[in-house]
Specification:
Layout: E1 52-55, E2 60-66, H1 80-92, H2 94-98, E3 102-111, E4 120-131, E5 134-143, E6 150-160, H3 164-169
Antiparallel strand pairs: 1-2, 2-4, 3-6, 4-5, 5-6
Length: 185
C-alpha cells in the first residue's frame, strides 16, 4: 500500500489570496450553526461546546465558548482535544465567508497555557489563502477576552470538497436545510 504524502499546515509557497464571497454575511453577523446537534456549534448538543462564531472583517471570524465541567480532561482543566475542536470549528467557520464547503485536512495545535473550567475562550481565525483546493488558515485562542493571554494557536489546511461529500460519507440532511447556504448540507 502506498502512503499519501504528509502535508504541513504551513504554506510552502505563494498563496492565491482569499476573497470574501459577495453574499457572505456582513462583519459582525453571528454565523448560524451548520447542524443543530454538532458537538462544536450545535445549540442542541447536550454536552457540546455551543461555540458561537461571528463574521469578522476580510476573511476572518471570531468564536467564543465557555469551558464547562463536561469539557474536562484533568480535573478542573479543559481537555486538549476539546480545545483543538474549538479551534477546528472556528477555522471551519471561514467557509461561511468563502461559501465553499470544506473539510479539515490538517490541524496543527500549539498549547501555550492551561484553560480552566469556567474560562471563556475567545478565538480568532484568519484565512491566509489558497493553493488549489487547499485553504490555509491560522487561529489563536485567548483566555477571558480577545485581548487576554494566548492559551493556544493553530495552523490548518482545509480542503474544498463538493457538496455531495457530506451526503456520500454522512447522512443526507437536505430535508433539514434551514439556510440559503449550508457549510455541511
Amino acid at each position: 500500500m502506498i502512503e499519501p504524502p504528509t502535508r504541513t499546515a504551513t504554506p510552502q509557497g505563494e498563496l492565491e489570496p482569499a476573497v470574501r464571497h459577495p453574499d457572505a454575511p456582513e462583519p459582525g453577523t453571528v454565523l448560524p450553526s451548520h447542524y443543530e446537534n454538532c458537538v462544536a456549534c450545535g445549540p442542541s448538543h447536550p454536552t457540546g461546546l455551543r461555540l458561537v462564531s461571528t463574521a469578522g472583517p476580510g476573511v476572518s471570524v471570531t468564536g467564543e465558548f465557555t469551558v464547562t465541567k463536561d469539557h474536562q480532561g484533568a480535573p478542573g482543566l479543559a481537555h486538549g482535544g476539546v480545545l483543538a475542536l474549538a479551534l477546528d470549528e472556528t477555522l471551519g467557520s471561514l467557509s461561511w465567508l468563502l461559501r465553499r464547503p470544506m473539510v479539515t485536512g490538517r490541524l496543527e495545535t500549539d498549547y501555550i497555557r492551561p484553560v480552566p473550567v469556567g474560562a471563556t475562550l475567545s478565538l480568532q481565525a484568519t484565512c491566509l489563502g489558497f493553493e488549489g483546493r487547499r485553504m490555509y488558515a491560522k487561529a489563536v485562542g485567548r483566555l477571558d477576552g480577545p485581548e487576554g493571554n494566548v492559551a493556544l494557536r493553530a495552523s490548518a489546511v482545509f480542503v474544498v470538497v463538493p457538496r455531495e461529500h457530506f451526503t456520500e460519507h454522512g447522512t443526507d440532511m437536505a430535508a433539514d436545510k434551514v439556510h440559503d447556504y449550508e457549510v455541511n448540507p
